[in-house]
């Protein structure tokens, strides 16, 4: 993995960890959403959303959880993602914004 990709992955992972320390700031029903122990906690859902490729949701879940028999279902994943408040994510975090510079071939990162 090149240096830029490694750095970006490290920043995103760190940011998701910070967010998961206090998920109440990023959910629709603070004090209720992501409070119980589940197969898909806030951090896992966010990691999956960031890292998903072009496969089906269930295939992505299987890949991320090591093809475990107790892998969460697609329905469970969708239900967890509905609890996340996208507007709060953009207001409260420093989520990187990617833009393609027309004069450069690589993608630059603005934080």
Q: Major sheet, described briefly?
A: 2 strands, antiparallel
Q: How many distinct helices? A: 5
What's the end-to-end separation, in Å?
A: 21 Å
Order of helices and strands: HHHHHEE
Radius of gyration: 15 Å
Q: List low-pLDDT spans.
A: 102-111
The 3D shape can be described as globular
Q: Mean pLDDT, nearest integer?
A: 81
The total count of strands amounts to: 2
**Helix fraction by DSSP (H/I, runs of at least 4):** 40-55%
In total, the number of domains comes to 1
Strand order of the largest sheet: 1-2
Structural category: mainly alpha
Q: Mind explaining what this structure looks like?
A:
With 111 residues, this protein is mainly alpha-helical. The chain has one domain (3-110). The protein has five helices and two strands, in the order αααααββ. It has a two-stranded antiparallel sheet. Strand 1 and strand 2 (107-110) form a beta hairpin. Helix 1 packs antiparallel against helix 2. The longest helix has 19 residues, at 3-21. It starts with a helix and ends with a strand. Mean pLDDT is 81; it is low at 102-111. It comes from Paenibacillus piri. This is Transposase.
Task: Furnish the topology, listing elements before pairings.
Layout: H1 3-21, H2 42-51, H3 57-64, H4 74-82, H5 86-92, E1 97-100, E2 107-110
Antiparallel strand pairs: 1-2
């Amino acid at each position: 993995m090149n240096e830029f990709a490694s750095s970006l992955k490290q920043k995103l992972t760190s940011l998701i960890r910070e967010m998961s320390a206090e998920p109440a700031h990023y959910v629709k029903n603070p004090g209720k959403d992501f409070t119980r122990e589940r197969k898909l906690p806030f951090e896992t859902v966010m990691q999956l959303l960031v890292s998903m490729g072009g496969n089906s949701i269930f295939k992505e879940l299987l890949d991320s959880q090591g093809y475990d028999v107790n892998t969460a279902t697609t329905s469970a994943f969708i239900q967890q993602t509905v609890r996340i408040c996208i507007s709060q994510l953009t207001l409260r975090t420093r989520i990187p914004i990617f833009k393609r510079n027309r004069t450069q071939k690589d993608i630059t990162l603005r934080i």
